[in-house]
Structure formats: structure tokens, C-alpha cells
Specification:
The protein is mainly alpha-helical and 520 residues long. The chain has one domain. 67% of the residues lie in helices and 1% in strands. The protein is built from 22 helices and two strands. The protein has a two-stranded antiparallel sheet. β1 and β2 form a beta hairpin. It is globular, with a radius of gyration of 23 Å.
Length: 520
């Protein structure tokens, strides 16, 4: 099946869910059913020839299928966690629209259209920022986030307009080509909140609910980065200069993001900020893929991006469930949390395995490959050590979790985060019937309230298991990441989507320092 049925459901159900947002139950039902149907349709996407639409072309691929299946399944589980914790009513609709935009961006063959779609998906995420804490501060953060998205989108659009193919890249002025390459990479850095563009990402972590962070800081930026990677691998190797200075700056930004983002996650005392800064650090690894003009970076970068977004989705859902269970985001107040919530403790252990990995796992190999290609020894070993230091902030949370329970953790069940309905035991006995019992609405509400913490923990555990599978290379991750996207149409001005060879011989370019010669 082609990509079009998925896009129809994603955009249609997402828009409908947002339009009827004032009717909370109907909006949630439409959004959740839409996510279920979108997951099924995403799983049915197959490799096919580009389908002409609106003067362009769009097609599915194995990687698009896996990206969207994981996004929809993860979005469905996050929605379940949100239902059991703090429910942002726009979450399912925004998730569908964001994933629909990501699917369109990854399937379309024109680079300008892909950039516009990926930027539009990020704009949808602003809705999450305005929900839940719809204060003046939230509005200010949303405006700043929109500003960052617009700046990144404009830079990428200008770069795509300047270079629309490998042949064009070899004929334009070298200075314009270099500026286009650097502009596209800088746009990806802005989208990931890489240092020094991290301020807006930190403010988003303050304004958006935990369950909204994956869409805003992971899935949408990842789709944008994949579009940039396709453009870079197809067009940039045709440049007639090695771009040493530009690539060095990108590597420096990536290294600063990895080191400082990991350090900030290790010392921060707010769970949401730990999640946010961990995403900044992992985004730095993805930036290295844009700094490497080598086809070997293609599969490694796409593997890393897919594993990271699924893992960080699980991490954000874990943070939301922990916050709801114990009523606090402060790590200092959470001593003994794993003893009182062992399922969440097991989930965090799984997230640690998926986020850090070990030799033999796909995520570990992808990280090591990108660092080895981008940074020469001995600095590469140091940067790899800094990236693996992610185990410190996961380990810190686990060690606090098995410590002696503090007052906040011990009294948490007596201080729920939302108003409790009347307990089931206090309901009149007349409502208890023999045989098949019928629950009234208050009884169902009481039953849900009593089980919502366990339901949220179970959903997080499933997400953790899913992230381990992706990080380990299951579900055909390696094959999907290695395969190029569908070939673009042969019309002039259309950028081939992936590291494919040009039909015309390209001018010889000097071999970049420390890098193998690009194969085009």
C-alpha cells in the first residue's frame, strides 16, 4: 500500500480532533482511534515508485514505514500515559498532524517541499506548548519556539533553493555552495536545540507537559534532520572544495552539545530538564552525520535518529508517569521512588539499555561510526566517552530510586495530582449486583482512578521494551536505514533523495582532511 492512505488518516483525524477540542471526550476518542488506524496503515506502507501529486512526487520506503509505525505506536502509548496523568487535550491531534507532516516530508522527492513539510510539523508541536499550562509564560515560550522554527525553515529553504541536485552543486559559485551547506546544517542544529541554540529548548521543557516533549524535541526535529541528510548526501559531495572550515564548525557545535548537554542532564534537579538536555546531547550525535560527507554516515545517522526518538519518547513518558505518581519533578524529593514504583524502575533500566547500549547493538555501532568518521583520534575516543557518559544521569536516577524512601515518596498516595472521585468502597451497596456486575459512571471513574498509575507504568514499560528492540536492531532497522529512499523523478531540478550516483561525471574534489573521498 502507498503512503497516501496513511497521510489521509493522519491529517484528517488529526485536524478533526483539534477542531472538536472543546468536546474533550470526543476529541480524545477521535485522536486515539486515528492513532490506531494510522499505525495499521503505516505498517502497510511498501516500497513503491514515486506517485505524481501536485506537480511533485511522493513514495513510501522501508525507512518511512518503520519511522511512522514507531511514531504512531509510541504516540498511542504516550496518549495512554497522558490519559492516566495530565491530559493535554490537543495531544492526539497534534501527534497525528506532526507525524503526517513527517511522513510527507520523508516521502516527497522535492527538497523544498520536504523542508516546508518538516517545518510545518514542528509548528504543530507549538500547540502542545500552549496546552496544560496556558499561561502568559507558555505563550511567550510558544512565540520563541515559533521564531526558532521559522529561522531554521527559512535557512533550509534557501539552501534547498540554491542547490537542487548534484549537477547544480558542481556549477554554482563555491562560496554559495558552502554557505548553503552550512545553513542547512545550522538549521538542523536550531531544530535540535543544539548548543548554543539550546535556550529555547530548555524553555520548551518548562512550558510543555512531559508527554508533549517527544513530538516537540524528538520526532519533528528528527524528520527535519533526515531531510537534511538526504539533501547533504545527494548534493554536497559534488562541491569543488572540501569545506573543511564549515565541517569543523558543525563538528564543534555537535561536540559541545554532546559534552555540555550530557553534563547538564547529570547535574539538573528537574526531571523535565534532564529529559530535555539528554535530547540536546543525542541531537549532537545526529549533527555529526551532516558533517561527514561519506556514504558510510547515511545508514548510521538514520539508525541513530530512529533509535533516539523512540528511546526519548519512552524517557519522556517515564518522567510524566513518575511526576504523576509522586507529585513532584524535583529529583531531590524522589528518594526511594523505584521501591514504591518497581515497574517504573524496570522501565528506566530498559531505557538506560536502549539509550546507552553496548557493543553489538545497532545504536552503539551507529554512535561509534559517526564519531569515528567525524573526529580523528584521540579526540574521537574522548567524544565517545562523553557520549557514553549518558549512563551517569540514568544511573543517578536509578540510585536515588533505590535509596531509603523520603517523606514525599512515602506520602505520595495521600496527595494525588488530580481530584479523586468518590472511592468505590463508599458507594451504596445497592449498586453492587450479583452475577455480572454493572458499573455506574462514578464506579468506573473510581476504578480508573485506582488503576491509572499502574496503567501509566505499564505503558511506559512497553515503550521501554520497544526502544530496546529498535536500539538493538530489531524490526528490520539496519536494512531500512541502509536502503536509500525512493528514487526521485527524472525531471530537472528535483533532488534525488539519498546517496545515489549521478549519471554525469562530477568534477574531482580534493579529499577532505581525515575523511575518505566521497563516492557521490
Amino acid at each position: 500500500m502507498s503512503l497516501l492512505p496513511f497521510l489521509t488518516i493522519a491529517f484528517g483525524a488529526g485536524a478533526l480532533s483539534l477542531l472538536i477540542g472543546r468536546v474533550r471526550r470526543a476529541s480524545a476518542l477521535v485522536g486515539i482511534v486515528g492513532l490506531v488506524v494510522a499505525t495499521v496503515l503505516a505498517a502497510s506502507i511498501r516500497d513503491d515508485a514515486p506517485f505524481a501529486i501536485a506537480g511533485g512526487a511522493i513514495a513510501g520506503s522501508a525507512y518511512v514505514r518503520l519511522f511512522l509505525v514507531m511514531g504512531c505506536a509510541g504516540g498511542l502509548l504516550v496518549a495512554l500515559v497522558a490519559l492516566a496523568t495530565s491530559w493535554p487535550r490537543n495531544l492526539p491531534g497534534a501527534t497525528l498532524l506532526g507525524l503526517g507532516a513527517a511522513g510527507f516530508a520523508l516521502g516527497v522527492t522535492d527538497p523544498g517541499t520536504a523542508v516546508a513539510a518538516a517545518t510545518g510539523g514542528g509548528v504543530v508541536g507549538i500547540l502542545i506548548t500552549l496546552v496544560g499550562r496556558g499561561t502568559e509564560r507558555g505563550l511567550v515560550v510558544a512565540i520563541r519556539e515559533l521564531r526558532a522554527l521559522v529561522v531554521a525553515g527559512v535557512m533550509a529553504l534557501l539552501a534547498a533553493a540554491a542547490i537542487t541536485g548534484t549537477i547544480a552543486a558542481s556549477r554554482i559559485d563555491p562560496a554559495i555552495a558552502a554557505l548553503s551547506y552550512f545553513g542547512f546544517a545550522a538549521a538542523v542544529a536550531v531544530r535540535f536545540g543544539a548548543i548554543p541554540f539550546h535556550v529555547w529548548a530548555a524553555r520548551v521543557a518548562d512550558a510543555a507537559p512531559e508527554v508533549g516533549l517527544p513530538l516537540v524535541t524528538a520526532w519533528s526535529p528528527a524528520a527535519f534532520a533526515i531531510v537534511a541528510l538526504s539533501w547533504t548526501q545527494a548534493a554536497v559531495p559534488a562541491f569543488v572544495q572540501p569545506l573543511v572550515a564549515e565541517r569543523a564548525i558543525i563538528v564543534a557545535i555537535a561536540a559541545a552539545s554532546i559534552v555540555l548537554g550530557t553534563a547538564a542532564a547529570c547535574v539538573n534537579d528537574d526531571i523535565e530538564h534532564v529529559v530535555g538536555y539528554s535530547m540536546v546531547a543525542d541531537g549532537g550525535i545526529a549533527l555529526l552525520g551532516l558533517a561527514v560527507l561519506d556514504p558510510a554516515a547515511w545508514a548510521a545517522t538514520r539508525t541513530w535518529l530512529l533509535a533516539v526518538v523512540v528511546t526519548k519518547t519512552a524517557f519522556a513518558a517515564w518522567a510524566a508517569a513518575l511526576h504523576s505518581t509522586f507529585g513532584t519533578r524535583k529529583i531531590a524529593d524522589l528518594h526511594g521512588w523505584a521501591i514504591r514504583a518497581p515497574v517504573l524502575g524496570l522501565a528506566l533500566l530498559g531505557i538506560l539499555v536502549a539509550g546507552v547500549g553496548w557493543p553489538g547493538m545497532a545504536v552503539f555501532a551507529a554512535r561509534a561510526t559517526l564519531i569515528d568518521l567525524a573526529v580523528q583520534a584521540p579526540f574521537g575516543a574522548l567524544l565517545l566517552g562523553a557520549a557514553l557518559a549518558a549512563v551517569l544521569y540514568y544511573g543517578r536516577l536509578l540510585l536515588i530510586g533505590v535509596a531509603t524512601p523520603g517523606d514525599v515518596v512515602l506520602t505520595a498516595p495521600e496527595r494525588p495530582t488530580r481530584r479523586q472521585p468518590e472511592p468505590l468502597a463508599r458507594l451504596p451497596r445497592a449498586r453492587r449486583r450479583s452475577g455480572l456486575r454493572r458499573f455506574s459512571r462514578p464506579e468506573m471513574a473510581a476504578l480508573w482512578q485506582a488503576r491509572r498509575t499502574a496503567i501509566a507504568a505499564a505503558a511506559v514499560l512497553v515503550l521501554a521494551a520497544l526502544s530496546i528492540g529498535v536500539a538493538g536492531g530489531s524490526f528490520g532497522v539496519r536494512a531500512a536505514a541502509e536502503a536509500p529512499p525512493p528514487a526521485a523523478s527524472a525531471e530537472p531540478g528535483v533532488l534525488p533523495s539519498g546517496p545515489t550516483a549521478s549519471d554525469e561525471p562530477l568534477p574531482a574534489s580534493p579529499e577532505p582532511s581525515g575523511q575518505p573521498a566521497p563516492s557521490g
